[in-house]
Amino acid sequence: MAGFYEYYLGWAGPARRAYSSGVALQLPQGYARAGEVVVCGMGGSGAAGDYLAALSARYGGLPVYVVKSAEPPAWVRGSLVYAVSFSGNTRETLSCASRAYRLGGLVVAVTTGGRLASWARSVGAPVALVEEAPAPRAGWPQLFYTLLGSLKAAGLIQVPESHVEESLQLLGERERAEAEAGELVAWLRESRGRLAVLAPEPYYPVAVRAVSELAENAKTSAVAMQVPEAGHNLLEALARDGDSRLLLIDPGEEPWSTLLHEFAGLARPASIHVARLQGGSPLSRMVWGTWLAGLASVRLALEEGLEPEPVKTIKAFRRVVEETSGWDAHS
């Protein structure tokens, strides 16, 4: 399983190629006139949509709505719809894509192939083929950067090119990333208590992604929280329990850093670890946090004697979905 870790460590290459591929994707005339973006995707595919939504809100661009189920919004007609499935065989995404198409959505498939690619070609929808990876979650850069490049080329998101380049260059900082991941893993192994990952609202997708990576790779449960919202509800329970451990996703921005640390002081957790996001832009900091979470989760699994790649229980649930949901397998 060391190869799985090495794949995460080498994200820079797939990320840069994916961005170039997304920029080169030729969308049909009229797609760029959409008023909003819908991303249909589960797991890491849906996470790519979460990041785009946060970045569009921060930098400017079309609003991004993420669907992590089988049913697109009723207003999808005329919307730019990215159907994202690494395997191309995710039942919920196939259903979301085909229903969006029938409702008049402008669909683009982002996938390695499978039924999604076949269906998209059959209805004349564009297909962005992405590179394979050892597991879909490890292929997050392929999905995210393909989407970002496509939206940038169409003028639908206002992330500066310099920020994109900085984020790609950061993925080359392997020694620093490994060192910080090692510190995080040491804390996770030494500390005890219920784990919560806390991020400022603009960086909340990083916390959600970290929780997912810990669950899939390290088979470790955690919850994602965001400030200021958690300070209006969850803080009361944390302060009473006193047995939690907090992983703070700190972007080094004010007022967010102060709010994070003040929240932690009021929560009185048993243990705290601060993951400081590297980079000079919101995009770069989000990418760094995502990379760090991936590396740390795989390394934690390996040090605990676990196999990070297999997800047998998740696959069992997917079979349940296919056998019982009635959602479209294809159109």
TrEMBL record:
Keywords: Isomerase. It comes from the Archaea. GO terms for molecular function: carbohydrate derivative binding; glucose-6-phosphate isomerase activity; mannose-6-phosphate isomerase activity. Gene3D superfamilies: Glucose-6-phosphate isomerase like protein, domain 1. PROSITE patterns: SIS. GO terms for biological process: carbohydrate derivative metabolic process; carbohydrate metabolic process. Signal peptide: none annotated. Residues 27-162 form the SIS domain. The keyword Isomerase applies. Belongs to the PGI/PMI family. This is SIS domain-containing protein.
